[in-house]
TrEMBL record:
This is Transport permease protein. It is found in: Cell membrane; Membrane. The keyword Transmembrane helix applies. Residues 7-236 form the ABC transmembrane type-2 domain. It comes from the Bacteria. Keywords: Antibiotic resistance, Cell membrane, Membrane, Transmembrane, Transmembrane helix, Transport. One of its GO terms (molecular function) is ABC-type transporter activity. PROSITE patterns: ABC_TM2 (PS51012). Its main location: membrane. One of its GO terms (cellular component) is ATP-binding cassette (ABC) transporter complex. It holds the Pfam family ABC2_membrane. Belongs to the ABC-2 integral membrane protein family. GO terms for biological process: response to antibiotic. The lineage of its organism: Bacteria, Bacillati, Actinomycetota, Actinomycetes, Micrococcales.
Length: 245
């Protein structure tokens, strides 16, 4: 990741900043001028947790596609550790850990930006950083497991970004409450790590009402996706890199 670290930082800071300026402050000023509140708070405060989670999910999705393919096929960077005592399972876990570290750093940078705009209650809002990382891993690990099975890249990753990530981003209560959608579209949010992470992050950042059982369901969905992705990723790395040590 050091090779494109400047791009990572620019993306981690630039993308949420543009959304905050365009949506939170631009559109938000119009809504606030009309005395419109979302979930009892100004629009900027409402969308900030969703942007935090969406940014983490997008980052995890990106790191779980082309970089994984690169490790297996193009630069074959996974082959180097195989001549050491490191096992394929450990290589997979190292890739997961690298993504998690990126998400935590990215979330911290985002929180600094949001705090400068006064859109988070500190210090309780800091809990949203690991929540966003959890949501990112819930999306990233199943995708990583799939990426580990691809031997020829023929546009699969573009399809994931356009037809998986983008619909989840748009229909997960990011810019408006999920209940504003027709019931036949709300199911997209119910299965989306973005929505589950956003609900928990809104609770942490401004006190959004989330019942105890609802919080458990949100966490259970995220943990279940991570567990499935973790197991499948390790299995597929072993299949591609040749057994265990």
């Amino acid at each position: 990741m050091r090779r494109y670290g400047d791009v990572l930082v620019a993306d981690a800071v630039g993308s949420p900043l543009m959304y905050i300026l365009a949506m939170g402050i631009g559109l938000g000023s119009l809504l606030t001028g009309n005395q419109t509140l979302f979930d009892g708070v100004p629009y900027l405060v409402f969308i900030a947790p969703a942007l935090l989670v969406s940014s983490a999910v997008q980052g995890a999705t990106t790191e779980s596609t082309f970089p994984v393919m690169d490790g297996f096929k193009w630069h074959r960077i996974y082959q180097g550790p195989l001549v050491t005592p490191i096992s394929p399972q450990q290589i997979a876990q190292g890739q997961m850990l690298a993504i998690l570290i990126r998400l935590l750093i990215q979330g911290s940078l985002f929180m600094v930006i949001v705090a400068l705009f006064g859109a988070v209650h500190l210090p309780a809002g800091l809990i949203a950083i690991p929540i966003a990382a959890l949501a990112g891993m819930a999306m990233g690990l199943p995708i990583m497991a799939y990426s580990a099975t691809i031997k020829e890249e023929k546009g699969q990753f573009s399809i994931i970004m356009r037809f998986v990530f983008m619909p989840l981003f748009l229909f997960s209560g990011t810019f408006y409450p999920l209940t504003n959608l027709p019931i036949f579209l709300q199911w997209i949010g119910w299965i989306s790590p973005i929505w589950h992470g956003t609900e928990l992050s809104r609770w942490a950042m401004y006190g959004h009402q989330v019942g105890g059982w609802q919080a458990l369901i949100h966490l259970a969905v995220l943990v279940a996706l991570i567990a499935v992705g973790f197991v499948l990723t390790r299995r597929h790395f072993v299949a591609r890199l040749g057994g265990t040590k």
